[in-house]
Amino acid sequence: MRLPRPSSAAITAYPVQVGDLPNAKLTPGDVLTTNVARICTSGYSKTVRDVPESLKNAVYREYGIQRHAPYSYEVDHLVSLELGGSNSIRNLWPESYTSEPLNAHVKYRLENKLHELVCNGDLDLATAQHAEAADWVQAYDRHMGTLPTK
């Protein structure tokens, strides 16, 4: 299922480096399921996590990353698996582990929080999926507070 994009590129108050945010044209977001009971079943994301190395390499090529230091990026899901995101190339992007203040470690915190809110019935799944796809930094601000500086 394709997710709607914001009317224009979302602009944040944070300095953005290459790899901090996905390119909306390359990675608009994509979901596998909208079934709350399914995603809230313990261990769900492990059952659907399947991104072959060939697909990861295709994502790096799409983003013009020909070489990178080991463990400097991960091919991440824009709409997290924990929220029903898919493994399609439309939902994958190279996310930095090392950029500041935005990086994979920061996004993990948001993914866990949104999953908790959805599974507790405090946030609608479609709303959470759209928040991640539209601008995960704004979603972090809304649900977690100000981004850490380091």
Overall outline: globular
Distance between the termini: 35 Å
Order of strands in the sheet with most strands: 1-2
Unreliable residue stretches: 2-19
**How many helices does DSSP assign?**
5
Derived from helix and strand composition plus strand pairing, the structural class reads mainly alpha
Helix and strand run: HHHEEHH
Main beta sheet strand tally, sense and closure: 2 strands, antiparallel
Oligomer: single chain
User: What is the C-alpha radius of gyration, as a whole number of Å?
Assistant: 14 Å
SSE arrangement:
Blueprint: H1 36-39, H2 44-48, H3 53-62, E1 73-77, E2 92-96, H4 104-119, H5 125-144
Antiparallel strand pairs: 1-2
Helix pairs in contact: 4-5
Which properties best describe this structure?
two-stranded antiparallel sheet, 150 residues
Structure characterization notes:
The chain starts with about 35 loop residues before the first helix and ends in a 6-residue tail after the last helix. The N terminus is likely disordered. It is built from five helices and two strands; from the N terminus they run αααββαα. It is mostly helical. The protein has a two-stranded antiparallel ribbon with strand order 1-2. Helix content is about 35%, strand content about 5%.
